[in-house]
DNA sequence: CTCAATACTTAGAACGCATGAC
DNA sequence: GTCATGCGTTCTAAGTATTGAG
């Protein structure tokens, strides 16, 4: 079947040949640009190493911790961890059993033998004074004078200047995360079984440095040494360490606007592959409608994480089959937690064949069993790339997002002459929103949402009152004008009419704003904008609509998409 | 090939600062 | 000037992709 797919695909259209040709041209261009052999990411790399967070400052003598009502002076190590907990006391995490249990277990490990003997019940711990001290500190920071704030800013800038940049192949590049992650209590997303565990302080002895052999090797902090210094130019990271919660490796890497990222495989390149999918997506869709039978294998087990799934790892409890639902036949109801424990809920009508297959896959299984027990992401992507070179699930996502944006922009925006910039931007946001909904990019409603919505509503109400008052005045003025017919009175009518119109306009604007905000309550636009939408679509739209590109991309985004802003013409089509 | 380790991208929340309304 | 609010930045968790060992 893969062979046949490829043949069909190759013969179907001239435009495919064209796009294939284009891909090769881009490949060559990219080759030219990168100028290094495969797998080599740089020839020269020099940096100052990561920035370490400041050492723990023990509590002042007048701040106390109490156990069972009695004052206890904690050892520095135990005290530091106690402060982590105290700082989070306002957060609801600290009320959760898993969080508390994990915290307490790890905390006890930091205690001295004596402390461990004494402190056996978290419920008997009183962190009140530590908590109060933390809040006072936050408050004090907020109330700093202008000069103090300025001094702090300058100090931070000094750190950025020293540690925030590296030299990569003769270019000074901004580092994305040059700071070692400070210690604290782990906060996973969703019901994470490890929430509350102690994330330990990283020492230079834990850190591997990666740089050029011939570069100036970064100095470890005084009295310390690095775990290792290596010179591996097949990777892009500058430093790494292993964190203690999941045992995962953390990396110090470059900023998103660096050459390495912008010309890396992920950015421009992914959009070209996705564009190519446009020319053969119909074939591929027809094909998978034909062979609705896949048979592969595999399972996997990892260290405990929050219970989340993706399309390949769905379990049978995540879908419900409805032969009939409302007025539709063969409906699949999805309900599961995806990445970041974000819920996906949807009812999707499918064709009979798919419905029957799903039913078959669920047979003789029980809760906890995988729906597609012979499928995994590797297998899926292998199959996809046999349909079109470079095709993966992610390419589909990029394609779907970009094509949706383009369609929505066409549907939602009028000609450039028809509307004001604000209205154009609203349309752009709506198109962006449609994409975010498609990709299930959700956010928690902002904490201040209800309040700010109420504030806006109050403004709207006030404006409404104002409007009716203005209308009333207009009516009065008209009556006056009719009975008297003086020029002055007529002028007054005109003035009142203008006032009513202005009022109406402002009211409309606010109402639109309220709608926009309400619609955006649980939708996050940033992720799709940054990661899935071909920036050339947006740049072309700006050119066509005569909207400055600054209105849709901020500085950071303009840096990241500089290549698209430079090269895109108004007639660009995804 | 499989599995685990490693590398890199994607993600939402928290933070903090600029801005604009009053 | 004050204050809320929205926005950009920072942070780091949580995915996917790739590599490499056996």
Automatic annotation (TrEMBL):
CDD domains for this protein: Topoisomer_IB_N_htopoI_like
Keywords: Coiled coil, DNA-binding, Isomerase, Topoisomerase
Enzyme class, broadest EC rank: isomerase
Active site: 532
Domain of life per record: Eukaryota
Gene Ontology molecular-function annotations: DNA binding; DNA topoisomerase type I (single strand cut, ATP-independent) activity
Span of the signal peptide: none
Family annotation (InterPro entries): DNA_brk_join_enz, DNA_topo_DNA_db_N_dom1, DNA_topo_DNA_db_N_dom2, TopoI, TopoI_C_dom, TopoI_cat_a-hlx-sub_euk, TopoI_cat_a/b-sub_euk, TopoI_cat_euk
Coiled-coil annotated residue ranges, if any: 135-162, 453-513
Catalysis performed (reactions): ATP-independent breakage of single-stranded DNA, followed by passage and rejoining
All copies of domain DNA topoisomerase I eukaryotic-type, residue ranges: 185-546
One protein family per Pfam: Topoisom_I_N
GO terms for biological process, alphabetical: chromosome segregation; DNA replication; DNA topological change
GO CC annotations on file: chromosome; nucleolus
E.C. designation(s): 5.6.2.1
The family this protein is said to belong to: Belongs to the type IB topoisomerase family.
Protein name: DNA topoisomerase
Species the sequence originates in: Salarias fasciatus (Jewelled blenny)
């Amino acid at each position: 079947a893969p062979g046949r797919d490829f043949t069909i695909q190759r013969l179907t259209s001239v435009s495919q040949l064209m796009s294939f040709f284009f891909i090769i041209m881009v490949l060559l261009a990219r080759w030219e640009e990168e100028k290094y052999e495969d797998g080599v990411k740089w020839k020269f790399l020099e940096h100052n190493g990561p920035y370490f967070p400041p050492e723990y400052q023990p509590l002042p003598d007048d701040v106390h911790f109490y156990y069972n009502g009695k004052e206890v002076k904690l050892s520095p190590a135990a005290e530091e961890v106690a402060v982590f907990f105290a700082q989070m006391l306002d957060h609801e995490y600290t009320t959760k059993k898993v969080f508390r249990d994990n915290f307490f277990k790890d905390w006890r490990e930091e205690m001295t033998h004596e402390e461990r003997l004494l402190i056996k019940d978290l419920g008997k711990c009183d962190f009140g004074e530590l908590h109060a001290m933390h809040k006072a500190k936050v408050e004090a920071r907020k109330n700093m004078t202008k000069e103090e704030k300025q001094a702090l800013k300058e100090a931070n800038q000094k750190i950025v200047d020293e540690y925030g940049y590296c030299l990569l192949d003769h270019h000074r590049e901004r580092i994305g995360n040059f700071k070692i992650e400070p210690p604290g209590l782990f906060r996973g997303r969703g019901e994470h079984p490890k929430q509350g565990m102690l994330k330990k302080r990283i020492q230079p002895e834990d850190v591997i440095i990666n740089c050029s052999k011939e570069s100036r090797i970064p100095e470890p902090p005084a009295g310390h040494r690095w775990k290792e210094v290596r010179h591996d130019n097949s990777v892009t990271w500058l430093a790494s360490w292993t964190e203690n919660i999941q045992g995962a490796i953390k990396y110090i890497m470059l900023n998103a606007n660096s050459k390495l990222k912008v010309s890396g495989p992920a950015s421009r390149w992914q959009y070209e592959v996705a564009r190519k999918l446009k020319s053969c997506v119909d074939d591929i869709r027809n094909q998978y409608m034909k062979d609705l039978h896949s048979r592969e294998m595999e399972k996997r087990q990892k260290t405990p994480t929050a219970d989340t799934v993706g399309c390949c790892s769905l379990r049978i409890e995540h879908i419900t089959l409805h032969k009939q639902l409302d007025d539709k036949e063969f409906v699949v109801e999805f309900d599961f937690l995806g990445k970041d424990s974000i819920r996906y809920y949807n009812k999707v009508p499918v064709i009979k064949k798919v419905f029957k297959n799903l039913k078959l896959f669920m047979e003789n299984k029980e809760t906890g069993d995988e729906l597609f027990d012979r499928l995994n992401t590797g297998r899926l992507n292998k199959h996809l790339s046999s349909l079109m070179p470079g095709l993966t699930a992610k390419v589909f996502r990029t394609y779907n997002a970009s094509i949706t944006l383009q369609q929505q922009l066409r549907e939602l925006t009028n000609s450039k002459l028809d509307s004001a910039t604000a209205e154009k931007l609203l349309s752009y946001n709506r198109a962006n929103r449609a994409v975010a909904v498609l990709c299930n990019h959700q956010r928690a409603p902002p904490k201040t949402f209800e309040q700010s919505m109420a504030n806006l509503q109050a403004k709207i109400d006030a404006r409404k009152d104002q409007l009716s008052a203005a209308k009333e005045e207009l009516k009065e003025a008209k009556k006056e004008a009719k009975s008297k017919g003086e020029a002055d009175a007529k002028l007054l009518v005109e003035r009142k009419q203008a006032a009513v119109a202005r009022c109406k306009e402002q009211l409309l604007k606010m109402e639109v704003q309220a709608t926009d905000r309400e619609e955006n309550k649980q939708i996050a636009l940033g992720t799709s904008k940054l990661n899935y939408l071909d920036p050339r679509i947006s740049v072309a739209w700006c050119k066509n609509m005569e909207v400055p590109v600054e209105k849709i991309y901020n500085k950071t985004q303009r840096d990241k998409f500089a290549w698209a802003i430079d090269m895109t013409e108004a007639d660009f089509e995804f």
